[in-house]
Amino acid sequence: MDFQPDDVQQAIQAAARAVARERIAPGARERDRTGHFPAEEIRELGRLGLLGTTIPEALGGTGAGTVAYALAMMELAAADCSVAVTASVTNMVNETIARWGTEEQKARCCPRLSSGEWLAGAFGLSEPHAGSDPAAMRTRAERRGDRWVLNGEKQWITSGDVAGVIVVWARTDDAGGAGKGISAFLVERGTPGLSAGRHEAKMGQRSSSTVPLVLEDCAVPGGAMLGRPGDGMRIALAALDGGRIGIGAQAVGVMDAALEASVRYARERQAFGRPIAQHQAIAFQLADVAVARDAARLLVLRAAMLKEAGRPFSREAAMAKLFASEAAQRAVATGVQVHGGYGYTEEFVVERLYRDARVQTIYEGTSEIQRLVISRDLLRDP
Amino acid sequence: MNVDLTEEQRQVRDLCRKFADEELKPHARKWDQEHRFPAEAVRKLAEMGLLAVAVPAEWGGAGMDNMCYALAMEEISRGCASTGVTMSVNNSLYCDPVMKFGTPEQKRKWLKPFTAGEKLGAFALTEPMSGSDAAEMRTVAVKQGDAYVLNGAKNFITNGPQADAILVFAMTDRPKGHKGISAFLVPTDAKGFSRGKPDEKVGIRASGTCSVFFEDLVVPAADRLGGEGDGFKVAMATLDGGRIGIAAQALGIARAALEEARAYAKDRKAFGQPIANFQAIQFMLADMATEVDAARLLIWRAAAMKDKGVRFSAEAAMAKLYASEMAERVTSRAIQIHGGYGYTTEYDAERHWRDSRITEIYEGTSEIQRVVIAANILKD
C-alpha cells in the first residue's frame, strides 16, 4: 500500500498543473461568462499528451496509466471544469476505441484524438427519454447493403458539435432482453445525416459544449461498428466505469480549488478583530472540507490503481465517483459560505465552482446509479 | 502507487479475522452485558504478539509495521470493540512511548513484561477538570532528592482497573505551562496509588475504565520517561499514533455493523420480498460501504506515512475524525435497517452503535482533531 506517485505520475501531474495554472485558469472566468469553447486550451492538452493519457504510445498516446490520468484530471479541474470534462470525455472515448476497436479504427481515431487534431471525442449514449436507463434507447441502426443507417436522437452530448468522432449507441436487434440488441458505432464529424442542436444553456461548466444530436438516415460504413453486434451495453458500461474515475478526479480538483480559495480568503478577511480563519466556526468547516477532499482523493486513486492493474474496479470507481461528487457539493457550499456575501458574487471563484460542481453528481451515472452499482456488488452472494 | 498489502500484512489481517470470528464475536455481547473484562482474550492476544505489534522483536514485540497494527485493530475491534481498545491502549499509549522515549534500562523494566502479556499498561493524561486542554492538569510531581512525589487524580483511564503500570503525566514546573509537564512510569502496586470504582459507560463496557489517585506517591527519578518538561511532547507524539489505532477501532466497529446489516437485509422480508431488494435499504448499504472504504484508506495512508517516518499528525487526525464520525453514522444506519430488532439486545447493532460513540471522544475529541487539521491547512 503506497499512495506516493512514481516518477512518471509525478511528471504528468506537474505538466498538468503547469498548463492548468498558466494557460487554463487565467481565462476560465471569461469563458464561463461567454460560453466560449476552450479550443486553444484543448489543443495545448493534446500537445502535452493529456488527451490520450492511458493510450499506448504506439497509438499516439502517452501510455502513462490511469493513476497519472486521475492526477492530471484533478489539476485541470482545479483550474476549469469545462476544460477538464472535455478532456476526460475525449480520454474515455479514446480509451474505448483503443480497447474495442479494430486495428483500422484504432489507427484512424486514437492518434487524432490523442494529439488534439480532433478537438474531442464524444460519447453518444443518453437520449431525451433514456438517461440512467440506456437500454430504453430508441435510436436504431439498420443494415442497408454495406452500410449501417442510424436514426434517432441523443441528448446531453459533451463536445457533440466539435468532436472528430462520436461513439453512438443504437439498437440493432429487437430480439432478446432490453440491453442485448444494442451496438456501438463510430460516427465521424461531418457524416451526412448527423447534426448537432443548440448548446444547452447550463448553470455550470458553461464553456464545455453540451448539445443534442439528431441522426437522420445517417449512413456509416459497415466497418464503423465498434465491437460486435450486441456488444453495445458492455462497451458503454466498461467505458463509464473508467469515466467515473475521471469525474471523481474532477470533483477532487474542484474541492482543491474551493479549499485553496477559502483558505486564502479566511486568512485575509477580518472579523471581530482577527482573520476569520482564527474563528473555529470557520476553521472547522475548512478542516471538514480537507478531510472529505483527502478521502475522495484516496478513493479515486484506489480505483485508478485497480484499473491500471487490470483488476475489477466497478464498485470502487462507483464509490469514488459517488463520494467525491457528493463531497464536492459540500465543499463548494462551504466555499461560498466562508466568503460570505462576496462568495455570492462573480468576483470570487467559489461561485463558479459552486455551479460547476453541481453536475458531478449527475453525469456519467447519477449518484443513484452509483449506489445501485455499489449495492448490487455488495449484496451479491459470493 | 500500489494498492496491495504485503504478504505479512495479509497474514496478520487474516489471522486476526479468524481470531475475531472464533474467539471474540461469539462472546462480545455477553461480555458487554456483564461488563466483564475479556481477560482470556487479552491473554491470547499477547500470545499472538498483538499487545505490542510495532515494538521490535528484541523487546518482545511482534516487530511489525503500523499498517499491520491498523489491520489488526480493525479486525479485533470488528470482533469486540472492548478488546480492541484494551489492545490499542497497551500498544499505542503504553508500549510505543516506552519504546520511543525509554532508555534501555527502562525498556527492560517497563517494556518487556508488557509486550509479553505478563502485564498490562495504561496511559493517564486526562483529569476531572482537564480533558482536551491537557496543560491545565493539576496533578503535580515535586522533586525530592532522587525521586518525585506525585499527588493528584486522573480519570477515564482505560485499562485502569487492570493495569500493572501507568504512564502518568504530571506538572513538574507549573509556570512553564505545557512545557512544565513530565511523564512517569508508575506501578499500580506503589504505595499511595489507589483506584476509583469502574466507570459505568454507554459502550465498550467490557473494557475497564476508572479514575486513579496518587497520594504522596514516590517515583524514582529513574522512572521518569523522557526529560523533565518533555511530558507534553511525549503525550502528543503518543496520541498521534494512538489516533491511528482508534480510527481503526472505529472502522472495525462500522464494518461489523455493515456486515450484520447486509446479512439481515438479505434475510428479512417485507412486502413479499427481502428488504435488500428495496432501494431504500440498498442505498443505505451503499453509503455505509463507501464511507467504510473511505475511512480505511485514510487510516492506511496515515499508517503508511508513520511507517515511512514522515510527519503524519494531520493525516492521523483526519483518519480519526472521519473514521469515528463515520462509525457513528454507519452503526446508526445498521440499527435502522434492523428496525425494531435493532433497538433490542437480541442483535449486536445496538452495541456497535454504543461502542462507536466513544471513538469521537477519546484520544482527542473530534473538535481537537479539527483543531489539528485546521492548523495544518492554515499554516504558511
In a few lines, what is going on in this structure?
The complex is a heterodimer of chains A (382) and B (380). Chain A is α+β, with helices and mostly antiparallel strands.
Query: What's the mean pLDDT score of chain B?
Result: 97
Specify the CATH class of the largest domain in chain B: Mainly Alpha
**How is the CATH topology of the largest domain in chain A named?**
Butyryl-CoA Dehydrogenase, subunit A, domain 3
> What do we call the CATH homologous superfamily of the largest domain in chain B?
Butyryl-CoA Dehydrogenase, subunit A, domain 3
Distance between the termini of chain A: 25 Å
Q: In percent, how helical is the residue content of chain B?
A: 40-55%
Q: How far is the first residue's CA from the last residue's CA of chain B?
A: 28 Å
The backbone outline of chain B, from C-alpha atoms, is globular
**Spatial strand arrangement across the major sheet of chain A:** 1-4-5-8
Gross morphology of chain A is globular
- Cα-atom radius of gyration of chain A: 21 Å
Average pLDDT rating of chain A = 97
Tell how many strands the DSSP assignment of chain B holds. 10
Q: What is the CATH architecture descriptor of the largest domain in chain B? A: Up-down Bundle
What's the topology here?
The complex is a heterodimer of chains A (382) and B (380).
Chain A (H helix, E strand, L loop, with lengths): L6 H18 L3 H7 L4 H10 L17 H14 L1 H20 L2 H13 L5 E4 L15 E5 L2 E12 L6 E7 L10 E7 L5 E3 L13 E12 L3 E2 L5 H37 L1 E2 L2 E2 L4 H29 L5 H26 L10 H8 L9 H13 L3
Parallel strand pairs in A: 1-4
Antiparallel strand pairs in A: 2-3, 3-7, 4-5, 5-8, 6-7, 9-10
Helix pairs in contact in A: 1-3, 1-4, 4-5, 4-7, 4-8, 5-6, 5-7, 7-8, 7-9, 7-10, 8-9, 9-10, 9-11
Chain B lengths: L6 H28 L4 H9 L18 H14 L1 H21 L2 H7 L1 H4 L5 E4 L15 E5 L2 E12 L6 E7 L9 E7 L5 E3 L13 E12 L3 E2 L5 H37 L1 E2 L2 E2 L4 H30 L4 H26 L10 H9 L8 H13 L2
Parallel strand pairs in B: 1-4
Antiparallel strand pairs in B: 2-3, 3-7, 4-5, 5-8, 6-7, 9-10
